[in-house]
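Problem 12. The chain below contains 620 residues. Write out its predicted structure in token notation.
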Amino acid sequence: MGAEDEGAPGRANTAGLRDVLRLAAGHRGAIAATVAATLLASALALAQPLVARDVIAVAGSGRTPWTAVGTLVVLFVGQALVQALVRFQLARTGEGIVLGVRLSLIDHLLRLRMPVYDRHRIGDLISRADADTLALRQIIAGGLTDAVTGVIGLAATIVLMLWLDWVLFGCVAAIVAGAGTALALALRGMRAASLRGRQATGEMAAGLERALSAIRTVKAGRAEPRESARIGDRAEAAYVANVRMAGFDALVSPATELAVTGSFLVVLLVGGTRVAGGSGSVADLVAFLLYMLYLTAPLGSIFEAFSAVQQGTGAVHRITEALALPQETDAAAAAPSEASRPLVETCGPAAPHASAHGDSSTDGGRAAALEFREVWFGYGRGRPVLRGVSFQVPPGGHVALIGRSGAGKSTIFALAERFYDPDRGEVLVEGMRADSLSRDGHRSRIGLVEQDCPVLDGTLRDNLVYAAPEAGEEEIRGAVAMTNLDELVARLPKGLETRVGEHGRELSGGERQRLAIARALVARPRLLLLDEPTSHLDLESEAALHRTIDEAAGRCALLVIAHRFTTVRAAASVLVLDQGRIVASGTHAELLDTSPYYRNLASQWLTTPTTPTREHARRA
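Solution.
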């Protein structure tokens, strides 16, 4: 099957601690330093009740405890300074983690296999690199650090409280256990709500991207209310999930209050009764109560850490899911450098016409620019789009590929560019199997001009050198002249430095198509693929574009998907595709004489108002 499976392992609705630690792998040193600083602050805090006990004991003997008071002040100030450092370090570490994950996601999402893009909405993938990564800041830099320091601080506090009074500690443990049970129930619901909220937010972003990318169609179709309602449904779903999560989160604070304040009251009552009865000392009770106060910090940290992690599990799951999507891979070594090849490279005389069969050698012993050998391919199991397709494009050849919609023409282009790999058969470039080259090396030999000729926001120069950033001024000017863009460059206020606008809105359709051809030529391809280059042009623009195509045909081989017979007639040979098979090949005139299917296509595509005849098709 041509569409590869994503290959992501089955995952539960929650992201494990292993996923969180893996995302933070490059920041373990910073997290460790933050944990160490937090532990230092905790140690300074834990020492204060013991010093306070000494102050009370010394004061009870009638002496002034200046040394103990000074030590207490130093401990307090030191704790405040270390905590300030910890806060800054946490913020910086969080931002570093977000940046690292975003960079990894951006690079990964740009290198996915083409079938992955077919099955995922682009807006949803974008939201994973945007909104979802922000959740990591609190999960890892806050929640994870708080959990580690909270557990260590809690353990130290428990040891000291047991040492002071194990009876009072038993009362505290019973209350904390009850609060922990309530917290566990809240966290269970929080996990599911978090994932639903993140998924709904991603769907909302995808829907908005869908509408805004086709905003003219939306407005022309008076579809603003429908699109708003459709996107609003996903926003409301995110609202419901987030409110549900907030409801569970609201239980965290009462649980913490129950654990800390309730314990404090019980200790005060039980301990005070014991002191009044003479079975305990005031100094020990004060020290124990101070530890109860300091117990608030680690206990609260643990509860809040669990809450933060559970709220972010949906984001972590979506991020790890995106990072598990399969990328394009290369089994072959990198292709040889193309740096020494000149921009304008004559590929030799074109062969009379493309062959639908035969080996990869052409006249003069030169390998075909492109060859398909018994290629089968389908986007789904049991649904082949190409059925044993074989043909050659000679070096310097100009070949037209025609057929009805759905015949498989665009699929041939996709396989030629290795966006997909064939299920069976071979694709060869200049006599070499495509899969023996790296994808980068393979694509450096082939230029592609898509039907809608996408133009990227930026300057005219940015678009011209997009596939060859190292191109010099002479190469750029050569491509501009070759594609008859000189007049456009001279007319623009800043020449090549003029911004072309989002999707090239400052340019006409013909200018965008010629710019797309120039962009492909600057990259110096041996083969240029043109997808219906004249399908949306007026006669004047079409004539200008044909002159551009004629110029390009003298520099490299051309394979053109054509729907107009003006384009077909300009080609040296024609391949006729029907239901995934090459059913005829030859020149335009030969096919009119030998192929009834081709004559039928010609009669359907002619724009003359009279009944089509063979002579009409010849003149077309």
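Discussion. The first helix runs from residue 17 to 23. Students who got a different answer should revisit the alignment rule from Section 12.3.
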